Amino acid sequence: MQKHKIIDLSIFGPIYLNKKKLKTLLDGKNILITGASSGIGEKLAYALSEVSCHLILVARRGGKLADIKKDIEMKCAKVSIFQADLRNETEIHAFLTFLHTIPNGLDIVVSNAGLSIKRSIYHSLDRFHDFTRTMAINYHAPVQLLLSTIPLLQKNNGQIINVSTVNALLAPVPYFAAYQASKAAFDVWLRSVAPELMAKGVSVTTIYLPLVKTPMIVPTVAYRNKPAMSSQHAVKIICKSMYSKKKKYQPWWLLWGQIASVFLGNFWDFTKKR
Ligand SMILES: NC(=O)c1ccc[n+]([C@@H]2O[C@H](COP(=O)([O-])OP(=O)(O)OC[C@H]3O[C@@H](n4cnc5c(N)ncnc54)[C@H](OP(=O)(O)O)[C@@H]3O)[C@@H](O)[C@H]2O)c1
User: Fold this and answer.
1) What is the C-alpha to C-alpha distance for residues 267 and 271, in angstroms, rounded to an integer?
2) Does ligand 1 have an atom closer than 6 angstroms to the CB of 60?
């Protein structure tokens, strides 16, 4: 068995994906994936290539999206690509206008585009822009996107899938203040609005992922030898949520981490004090 499969099974648990069910359910559906030019978003787009659905892919790297479209359209799915920096007012407006022209609206929005920064607070004292740019893509952009697309999703009893992180539910760790604060902000926002949305037929799913092997973690040297979920495993979890419609996925051990957070406070403080 390949090493990544052993890690996925032992640390993250097995995931059985019923591909037939997925194909039937997604047939003819309009599925938006933000941040589809790389990592989890890109792998998700490829995983849905065998389904007769319409994928709408958005990211800044238009060339990368064009290559992905070419590959996928050799299979079953139809693909529309849109090059946009979702932090840019003009570009996000143009994208939202485009979304409203899609016949039959939207069925699933996978809010996946994101940015992570690892930096000590002492190296951030003159870098306020690190905090504004992470908030812009990890919080403001998905909020703005959903404010515009909720009516489209509601018409189709659609689904919102938020690609989040286990850090949103655990005591925060140093060096990742910008990332954790911005991911937690969107997590809280979405959990606050979820009951209202669900009452109107829109499903809301949050996928709390641990470390995943994608280009996002490559610059962080400390992560090189840490066990990380394969992006294929993360994609299976997201695909499964499209038919299970469960409110959340979290790894089995997260609960123990949350309990430890309550009893030990911040684990980092606990280990450093002694
Ligand atoms: N990797 C992990 O360990 C991990 C763990 C938990 C959660 N997550 C979450 O998973 C999601 C995907 O991350 P990943 O690991 O797949 O990272 P990735 O490979 O770096 O992909 C990030 C995607 O977001 C897009 N993006 C970033 N800034 C954007 C902007 N301003 N406008 C439009 N698109 C933008 C990027 O496209 P362009 O650069 O082309 O714009 C890219 O397609 C993120 O929300 C992340 O927080 C990741």
Assistant:
1) 6
2) yes
Compute the distance from residue 205 Cα to the ligand 1 centre, in Å.
18
* Ligand 1 atom 20: residue of nearest CA: 216
110 touches ligand 1 (CB under 6 Å): no
How many domains would you assign to the chain? Answer: 1
What are the structure tokens assigned to 105, written together?
């609206």
| Whole-angstrom distance, CA of residue 40 vs CA of residue 213 | 9
Which of these, 15, 192, 9, lies nearest to 184 by C-alpha position? 192
Query: Would the CB of 59 count as within 6 Å of ligand 1?
Result: yes
Nearest-CA residue for atom 25 of ligand 1: 35
* CATH code, domain carrying 113: 3.40.50.720
Average pLDDT, 10 consecutive residues per value, the chain (274 residues): 71 93 98 98 98 98 98 98 98 98 97 97 98 98 98 98 97 95 98 98 98 94 89 97 98 90 68 55
Domain span holding position 114: 3-273
Q: What is the pTM of this model?
A: 0.95
Question: Catalytic one among 179, 208, 223, 249?
Answer: 179
